[in-house]
Amino acid sequence: MNELPIVQNETHLPIFAGQKRTQLAKQRFLHSYADRLTWQVSVACRDARVGRASYYRWLATDPAFALECKRAERLCHDYVKDKLMMRIVEGNMRAIIFYLQLYHPEFGGVSSKL
Asked: What is the pTM for the complete model shown?
């Protein structure tokens, strides 16, 4: 994947395109979206006090912001997969069936046989 380098300031926060208050709004959004493990656009927008339209405009016009959002989504996927694997190790049959159906299509009918 061809990722863009992120320019950071002395506080190690990404520098985004736009005016200072827009940059701060983007940082507030990412704090809610990724750092607080929200991973819900509407909740993060509410926390950052920005509209969803602003979020989608930023995604389209600011490559650094879009990259940080993509990183947050990967973090979310890793977190969820880790939780799923924990349930599998615990012997949770629903988690086992879900995993098999998702990653091994040949087990697609397993839930109807149990």
From this structure: 0.68
Which structure tokens are listed for 32? 């809610």
DSSP 107: G
Per-residue tens of pLDDT for the chain, all 114 residues:
444 344 444 445 566 766 888 989 999 999 999 887 778 999 999 999 999 999 999 999 999 999 999 999 999 889 999 999 999 999 999 999 899 888 887 876 544 444
Q: How far is CA 51 from CA 19, 26, 31, 81, 94, in A?
A: 17, 11, 16, 30, 37
Is the CB of residue 32 less than 8 Å from the CB of residue 43? yes
